[in-house]
Amino acid sequence: MKSIHNYIDGQFVRGKREFADVNPADGSVIAQVSEADEEVVDRAVRAARKSLRGEWGRMSVRGRAARLHKIADAIEARFDSFVAAEVADTGKPITLASKLDVPRAAANFRTFADLIKTAGLESFQTETPDGQNALNYAIRKPLGVVGIITPWNLPLLLLTWKVAPALACGNTVVVKPSEETPATATLLAEVMKEAGIPDGVYNVVHGFGPNSAGEFLTRHPDVNAVTFTGESQTGAAIMKTVAATVKPVSFELGGKNAAIVFADCDFDDAVNGVAEAVFLNTGQVCLCTERVYVERAIFSPFVESLKKKAESLRIGSPVENITDLGPLISAQHREKALSYYRLAREEGATLITGGGIPQFGSVLDHGFYVQPTIYTGLPESARCVKEEIFGPVCHIAPFDTEEEAVSMANDTKYGLAASIWTTNLKRGHRVAQQMNVGITWVNCWFLRDLRTPFGGAGFSGIGREGGMHSLNFYSELNNVCIRL
Ligand code: NAD
Ligand code: 6OH
Predict the structure, then answer these.
(1) How far is CA 396 from CA 299, 309, 456, 482, in A?
(2) Are 182 and 21 in contact (CB under 8 A)?
(3) I need a surface site. Which of 122, 360, 385, 456 has the fewest CB within 10 A?
(4) Which of 101, 231, 245, 329 to mutate to test the pocket of ligand 1 (most atoms within 8 A of CB)?
(5) Share of the chain above pLDDT 70, in %
(6) Helix (H) / strand (E) containing 229
(7) Residue 396 near residue 385, CB atoms below 8 Å
């Protein structure tokens, strides 16, 4: 049996307890993982603190940027190992891990390596009260030790989305990947060595949230900032914990994202785009669409076409090249999704397709699969329309006016992402600007430029990462004012 250990100060470190890493495609145990107790987490934080004062702390920006590119090179050199590890941990199709997760991990390092080299800061020539001048300029310093806590849906992509800018800014990190997906964060430790990152700069602790590695890391007094991606409720718990030591936080949380489809859309593009937004990664992307609003004139043909699309998706083994849809992450998460499938029925939904568990007659029957599912007919107040399910499922409702569509899309405590489908660009801009979200896509979805602000409103997050927003979160700015 494979073992996965914590990584501290350049060494793999066992924990006193272990937990199982399960392959969601067939329920098999693929590794035993060392859980970090409070003492192990403390060692990791102390190693990170110590390395701030060493070679890393003295390294020039150019030196750090060069090493970030080496990390990207090393990820690309081990492309197949990263893909295999991600597929085994998450059950996502091999084509998706190859197209999205692993290339994005390398791109995250390259983007922030390049950005930190050219990032400027404000300076002001200031008139003093006595008619003289002063010069103000800001300098960028690392925050110190950054605690990074990430979820299981895009494990390497989301981890490196935070590790890359944190390192670019000269911080050291202790990362706590999800207990469901410990493999790629650990593989990245080997890459760090190869890329010449000094020991102690990148540390990994494994375990769970409450009363385990996650909580130990967030409450550690010597962690200077916490950046977290995951559920909104977990974000709330972390906020309480970090309050005692007044740490800055950056939170990318859940969503209940809407797509608005106007009758003047390019119909096939809209069907394909919405299908991708609902079903990609088996609906386990925070940006996925779970609410679809369609202008009444095309409501019936749209529902019919999305149904056809859902039924054409090939559900199966993640390691097959033809598979479109893998399992959900765990038995527990499947139970959550199925509880919403049951609830939808109780709430009076019309089932358009899916609603159950696919049967394979093979070892995949031990995996955590659900059918891609579409409902219509629910009132906007239904729990299935209000709560994040995080599975391959959507509810489609008709609308009559643009105003009504905007109001329904915005009627949520979340505010992560929206997509708008129309060939009327004026309308696209007009509606996009009314969305109470962090990211609005028009005639596309999950099309990313890593320099843009990324984050959510309301229950979907605090702060923005991406481009300069990341550099500003992971830096302490010191403004220097000089009387001339
Ligand atoms: P989760 O909140 O259950 O877990 C995320 C991480 O937090 C895990 O590493 C977990 O061990 C840790 N954790 C849990 N409780 C903790 C605590 N009290 N203290 C410290 N750490 C704790 O989320 P998940 O189930 O892994 O991921 C799914 C959720 O993440 C969905 O809600 C999804 O929308 C959200 N998500 C959001 C984004 C985004 O960018 N906005 C991206 C991906 C996922
Ligand atoms: C959530 O599941 C997806 C988040 C995506 C990003 O953070 C990104 O940078 O693309």
Answers:
(1) 9, 14, 23, 60
(2) yes
(3) 122
(4) 231
(5) 100
(6) strand 225-229
(7) no
Q: Report yes or no on whether pTM surpasses 0.90.
A: yes
In angstroms, rounded to a whole number, what is the distance separating the alpha carbons of residues 29 and 272? 35
Whole-angstrom distance, CA of residue 242 vs CA of residue 210: 13
Q: Please give the distance, rounded to the nearest whole angstrom, from the Cα atom of residue 231 to the centre of ligand 2.
A: 13
The band of 338, judged by pLDDT with boundaries at 50, 70 and 90, is very high
Contact call for residues 37 and 18 (beta carbons, < 8 A): no
Residue 196 phi/psi, 5-degree rounding, is: 80, 25
Closest alpha carbon to 293 in 397, 386, 411: 397
Asked whether 234 lines ligand 1 (CB < 6 A), one says: yes
- Packed helices 102-118 and 79-90: angle between N→C axes, nearest 10 degrees: 120
pLDDT over threshold 90, residue 45: yes
In angstroms, rounded to a whole number, what is the distance separating the alpha carbons of residues 26 and 91? Answer: 9
Catalytic residue status for 394: no
- Residue 272, CB-side half-sphere exposure with 13 Å CA sphere: 6
Q: Does the structure show a pLDDT above 90 at 1?
A: no
Supply the pLDDT for residue 81: 98
Kindly list the distances between the CA atom of residue 285 and the CA atoms of 197, 304, 331, in Å, as whole numbers in the listed order: 31, 24, 18
Q: How far apart are CA 2 and CA 264, in angstroms?
A: 54
Q: Could you confirm whether 286 is annotated as catalytic?
A: yes
> 7 pairs with which residues across the strands?
12, 204
Structure confidence at residue 280 as a pLDDT band (50, 70, 90): very high
